[in-house]
């Protein structure tokens, strides 16, 4: 999905401390923690239209009684390549939630549910519940019931565009700071943020695709509009080439060693400083250039990105937001 939720700093959740040296092993193993005790159930129906009510159950494990829970769809808040996110209300508690509904392709393993069960961080929307739904065509959808955060990055961008203003630098930093074996799916990620190796059909890729996406989001926050607004997969590559220039044979091989078509018009890279306005801080342009590299192994790591000088202002304990509040203690 293109929408990215950001948890308000006024309501930070308490997060579990996990040492850095444990993270790679835990993420690679994709172990499901017992404290996320949610058993996915299957319900009939797949409607997301306003007023549609979805009834499912939670609990029923480790001696716990099963509990019926109902969600009433209110409105769609985002559409993506693989599904939809809609706002809903829990009828039992009155709580507003976001439900991300994604079609399950039986040919591939979907790790999204496992990943969401692992994550527990103030900058990541929390997973409350999950269930599967089916349609008359025997299609299976995964429904993730998530914490509802009304202010997405794109909504904030639209707000400042309507005012014909640039987003304050401190907000750009805050929002962008929070973005971050077997065959995989090459057709993944919303088009504007899709890494070039995916467009080249790579099925063996790394988390470098997320680094590319983060670079696209950062550039969009700085520009006020998408950097690579392609209308199709091919057009997306054209938009990338307009900025980065034609990839070399070596860069294409780094993206997908099995790609054999090298016939592209030779276009020179557009200087980064000409893409952004003259008053753009040079450290912002530098970070974008480090994130958006053709070769996945040349993109900076997530840790290197977070320690970049562009974010130094967020690490200053005296930094205040435009509304006078101090920046997030989670940083």
TrEMBL record:
GO terms for molecular function: ATP binding; protein serine/threonine kinase activity. GO terms for biological process: cell differentiation; signal transduction. CDD domains: STKc_GSK3. GO terms for cellular component: cytoplasm; nucleus. Its EC number is 2.7.11.1. It comes from Actinidia rufa. Keywords: ATP-binding, Kinase, Nucleotide-binding, Serine/threonine-protein kinase, Transferase. The lineage of its organism: Eukaryota, Viridiplantae, Streptophyta, Embryophyta, Tracheophyta. ATP binds at residue 101. Belongs to the protein kinase superfamily. CMGC Ser/Thr protein kinase family. GSK-3 subfamily. It catalyses: L-seryl-[protein] + ATP = O-phospho-L-seryl-[protein] + ADP + H(+); L-threonyl-[protein] + ATP = O-phospho-L-threonyl-[protein] + ADP + H(+). This is non-specific serine/threonine protein kinase. Residues 71-311 form the Protein kinase domain. SUPFAM superfamilies: Protein kinase-like (PK-like). It is an enzyme of class 2 (transferase).
């Amino acid at each position: 999905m293109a929408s990215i939720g950001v948890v308000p700093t006024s309501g930070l959740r308490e997060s579990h401390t996990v040492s850095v040296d444990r993270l790679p092993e835990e993420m690679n193993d994709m172990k499901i923690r017992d404290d996320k005790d949610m058993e996915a159930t299957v319900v009939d129906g797949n409607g997301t239209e306003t007023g549609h009510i979805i009834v499912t159950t939670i609990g029923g494990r480790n001696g716990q009684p099963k509990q019926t829970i109902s969600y009433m769809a209110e409105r769609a808040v985002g559409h993506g390549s693989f599904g939809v996110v809609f706002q809903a209300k829990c009828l039992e508690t009155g709580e507003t939630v976001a439900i991300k509904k994604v079609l399950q392709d039986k040919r591939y393993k979907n790790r999204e549910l496992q990943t969401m069960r692992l994550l527990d961080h103030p900058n990541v929307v929390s997973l409350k519940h999950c269930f599967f739904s089916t349609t008359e065509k025997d299609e299976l959808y995964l429904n993730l019931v998530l914490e509802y955060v009304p202010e997405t990055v794109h909504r904030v961008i639209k707000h400042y565009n309507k005012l014909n203003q640039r987003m304050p630098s401190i907000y750009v930093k805050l929002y962008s700071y929070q973005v971050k074996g077997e065959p995989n799916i090459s057709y993944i990620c919303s088009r504007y943020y899709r890494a070039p190796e995916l467009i080249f059909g790579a099925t063996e890729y790394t988390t470098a695709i997320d680094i590319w996406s983060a670079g696209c989001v950062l550039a969009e926050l700085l520009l006020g509009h998408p950097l690579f607004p392609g209308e199709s997969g091919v057009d997306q590559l054209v938009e990338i080439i307009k900025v980065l220039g034609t990839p070399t044979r070596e860069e294409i091989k780094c993206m997908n060693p099995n790609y054999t078509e090298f016939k592209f018009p030779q276009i020179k890279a557009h200087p980064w400083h000409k893409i952004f306005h003259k008053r753009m801080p040079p450290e912002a342009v530098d970070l974008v250039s480090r994130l958006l590299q053709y070769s996945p192994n040349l993109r900076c790591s997530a840790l290197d990105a977070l320690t970049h000088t562009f974010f130094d202002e967020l690490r200053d304990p005296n930094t205040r937001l435009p509304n006078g509040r101090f920046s997030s203690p989670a940083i």
